[in-house]
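Both lines are retained for reference:
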Amino acid sequence: MLLGLGVTLALLFGALHLLRRLQGAQAAKAGALRVLSATPVGPRERVVLVAVGEEVLVLGVAPGRISPLHRLPLSALPSVPEGTPATPDFAAKLRQLMERRRDQ
């Protein structure tokens, strides 16, 4: 009976590991959208920067609703080397990008 339980548990863990790897492969293929940054602005609302092709969308996200707030070219964002952690001051970065866009 213990041998049967061990085999069953091993099969469950193996299936879970395989499922996680398959989901990771699907997420890597879906590279059309990338969430660059997000910050909460309320208990259930947040502002999100999403890269779509050569454009960056600033979206307001709330339960049951997503509203476009602004569009920027991808080149307007400062280049950040890979592996660099995101800056915690999202509001200042967003303000700087909006001012730069307004000046153009």
